[in-house]
Amino acid sequence: MDEVTASRGKQEGRKSGGGGKRRQVAALPWRGEGAAMRILLVSSRETRRWVIPKGWPMKGKSNFAAAAQEAYEEAGVDGVIADKPIGEYEYLKRLKSGAAKLVKVDVFPLQVTGEHAAWPEKGQRTLQWMTPVEAALAVQEPDLRDLIARFAGVELSEEDHPAPTPAPTPVRVTFQRLRRRITALWGRYGR
Questions:
Q1: What is the DSSP letter of 164?
Q2: Which of 106, 123, 168, 182 has the fewest C-beta atoms lying within 10 Å of its C-beta?
Q3: Strand segments (E) across the chain
Q4: Is the distance from CB of 139 to CB of 121 less than 8 angstroms?
Q5: Cα 38 from Cα 2, distance rounded (Å)
């Protein structure tokens, strides 16, 4: 799919959904069985928090196919994806304007059968295979945490349900980046 078509499809997804809520689709990449099961998380590009590959629905693709496409683009994986979501979760998406918009995300499990050496967002994100408990505890969204645990058939104790830490604001992210750059420059030229 060319970038123009993908962009048009993403615009369609942003407009969809009733009640003013936007909807996205996501893949929950997994491999292994039982105690060997692992869940793949990716870091978000802006806040660097752990998430699953997700994006806007794409024109001409079913929601599960769009979720599989996001898994390839963001994590370089492909495999067998379920055609029905296992659940949904909500999160606040930071817009370029600095405002936040509530987005609902339909989650489709993707049994990973292949990992690519190169993919569109390689180098922009960190990837990590985790146990289901590690993955559930690494994500910020409580509904996604519970969805991962339910999918993997693991129980989380009461202390594993901490109050979520809010994602950093765009201003805080900018200051963190600036601090890292100043620190790097100070180390290079300050001696």
A1: P
A2: 123
A3: 22-31, 38-43, 50-51, 54-55, 77-81, 87-94, 100-115, 127-130
A4: no
A5: 32
CA distances from 152 to 28, 46, 74, 112, 136 (A): 11, 28, 22, 15, 10
Q: How far is CA 60 from the centre of its chain?
A: 22
- The whole model's pTM is what? 0.73
The values of phi and psi at residue 166, to 5°, are -65, 145
Euclidean distance between CA atoms 144 and 105, whole angstroms = 9
pLDDT in single tens digits along all 191 residues of the chain: 343 334 434 444 444 444 456 899 999 999 999 899 999 999 988 788 899 999 999 999 999 999 999 999 999 999 999 999 999 999 888 777 878 889 999 999 999 999 999 999 998 999 999 999 999 999 999 999 999 999 999 888 766 555 555 555 666 667 777 777 787 777 766 55
